[in-house]
Write a structure and sequence with these properties.
Largest sheet: 10 strands, mixed
Structural class: alpha+beta
Number of helices: 8
Oligomer: single chain
Order of helices and strands: HEHEEHEHHEEEHEEEEHEEH
Distance between the termini: 35 Å
Number of strands: 13
Radius of gyration: 19 Å
Number of domains: 1
Helix content: 25-40%
Strand content: 15-25%
């Protein structure tokens, strides 16, 4: 991997890959998202950001589809066109080098609008078993207007020592998040770190460290879109230790699991696997069990 990328990663906690994906690759992913919205049997789960409500995409009413903002969860479980933005022969080697382990794709989050999310670090909510064994990428599905709430981030903030909550972990405790924000504010001020925004163009990829402070800038023009998809990756070593179900793809893995549970539903729905995918996953798990026992 280019030494400049490694240097940028170590010093700033992020890497930008301009125009990494072609228009054809982005078109395919967008077509998959459109298909999910149109499929009356879709298993995909969404979060209605206007109502703070989780439901299956097939249950979203016409008015909400037209007027609400949504986070679409885990399209990667259903659509290879989306997975190919997360795992492929060009990107996977970079992710492996930055993570220093085989990447395991564990979720995807698709947005039509800016998240408007406050500043945070991903490890608060997706705390890796081993420190540093989590990273994320952001793929721009369209050019980002600065009025549409672009991604905001603080270069160098990944080096801040992680806050320890009252239970001795780095995983967020809601009642203690005020103290976390105060701690991070002090660290940012003492280090003189300044926020930047990502003026993304369609096909750009932004890779960031799980400890990089980032969030969504305010949406200055209501309704203006900022289409994107985000992927998170755990390490292969953590995933094996946790006994996660992993399907091989493009020199890495993606986590096989059910979709997010929906309040009021009897159970969550698992995606379909091809015969080849199911067989490769079973063989991998069997071999792991043999080696673990030896």
């Amino acid at each position: 991997m280019d030494g400049r990328i490694t240097k940028q990663w170590q010093e700033n906690g992020y890497v930008v890959l301009p125009k990494f994906y072609s228009g054809k690759e982005i078109d395919a992913a967008e077509a998959a998202l459109s298909k999910a919205w149109k499929d009356p049997t879709s298993r995909v789960v969404v979060d209605d950001l206007n109502l703070d409500r989780r439901l299956r995409i097939r249950d979203v009413g016409p008015d909400a589809r037209e007027n609400h903002r949504f986070k679409v969860n885990d399209l990667y479980l259903e659509y290879p066109e989306v997975r190919r933005l997360a795992l492929n022969t060009r990107l996977t080697p970079m992710l492996r080098a930055l993570l220093e382990s085989t990447p395991v794709l564990c979720n995807s989050l698709s947005y039509a609008h800016g998240s408007g999310q406050g500043d945070h670090v991903d490890s608060l909510y997706m705390t890796p078993r081993t420190h540093g064994h989590l990273l994320a990428i952001w793929v721009a599905l369209e050019d980002c207007d600065m009025d549409a709430g672009p991604l905001r981030y603080y270069p160098g903030s990944h080096t801040i020592e992680q806050y320890v909550f009252s239970n001795g972990t780095n995983h967020a405790i809601n009642e203690e998040m005020g103290a976390w924000h105060a701690y991070m504010d002090r660290q940012i001020t003492e280090r003189g770190l300044k926020p930047e925004v990502f003026a993304a163009r369609r096909g750009d990829v932004f890779i960031w460290n799980a400890y990089l402070l980032h969030g969504g800038s305010p949406i200055l023009t209501p309704g203006k879109t900022r289409k994107s998809v985000v992927f998170h990756y755990f390490s292969g070593s953590d995933s094996r230790a946790l006994g996660l179900h992993m399907v091989p793809e493009a020199g890495a893995y993606w986590m096989y699991r059910s979709h997010q549970s929906v309040p009021g539903a009897s159970d969550s729905e698992a995606p379909a696997l091809s015969v080849g995918q199911a067989l490769s996953m079973r063989v991998r798990r069997k071999l792991h069990g043999l080696f673990a026992a030896s």
